[in-house]
Amino acid sequence: MNILFITANRLGDAVLSTGLLNALGRRYPRARFTVACGPVAASLFAPNPRCVRVITVEKRRYDAHWLSLWRECVGTRWDLVIDLRGSGVSFFLWARRRRIMRGGRRNGLRIGHLGAVLNLDPPPLPVVWTTPGQDELAHEALPDVARYLALGPTANWDGKIWPAEHFIELARARPDLIPVLFYGPGTDEERRASPVRAALPHAIDLGGDRPLGEVAALLRRCALFVGNDSGLMHLAAAAGVPTLGLFGPSRVSEYAPSGICARAVIAPGPEGQAPIAGLDVATVLASADEMCPARM
């Protein structure tokens, strides 16, 4: 059985779709999955043992990337095509069945929109896959001799970033946890993380260009994740780490972290307009202490 799973370009949306892919894997345990996603999310799906191929869909002018995807897929007879991009590509492929998620804003969490594609209620929570080698690397980087506080001080735009001095104050308020910095590849991500790194010289810097399975394995070694609304936040929640997402001018009603132990802390003000700098450290620390009590 061949299943084509077309998912998001952005990391956060791709992570949220993993629960749906996992549910399909349980429903069709002998199926062969091909996943089409954006370049930033490709390494998220590579460790999935049922995924035989990951097709990277790089955006091009005039939507030419959809023509490229069609060329990659037209030679296969698909038993099922799941299109979470609403692209319509599946209508031009040989497919026994199609499930297409339409775009536009809706009420409720994003995972609810995704679950509705297969009429799953409650919707499946996101998951992550790692390889044994990635788990071993994570154990070497973060050994069992300490407990770790994962910090995600970056995001894809500055309006979503909690001030660096707040992250620094939070980390200093929990001396029982060794801070670990996570951020994505590229000079912009490194620049955004640098004030926190400079002020916490004892922190372990694990940011940069790592496969997402390895990042997830590292996050699983941490006692708590505190970070901005970002793909990294969703990855932490999917990995099962106690996850505290920080929200200002972004839609917590749609993109709150989804996981077995995840919650959001919201800056005061109307949704989508509240400056994240208004979220005080005491509020975040109180939630962090509830999710991860200090050891005496």
UniProtKB/TrEMBL annotation:
It comes from Tanticharoenia sakaeratensis NBRC 103193. GO terms for cellular component: cytosol. Pfam families: Glyco_transf_9. GO terms for biological process: lipopolysaccharide core region biosynthetic process. This is Glycosyl Transferase Family Protein. One of its GO terms (molecular function) is ADP-heptose-lipopolysaccharide heptosyltransferase activity. CDD domains: GT9_LPS_heptosyltransferase (cd03789). InterPro entries: Glyco_trans_9, LPS_LOS_Heptosyltrfase. Keywords: Glycosyltransferase, Transferase. It comes from the Bacteria. PANTHER family: TETRAACYLDISACCHARIDE 4'-KINASE-RELATED (PTHR30160).
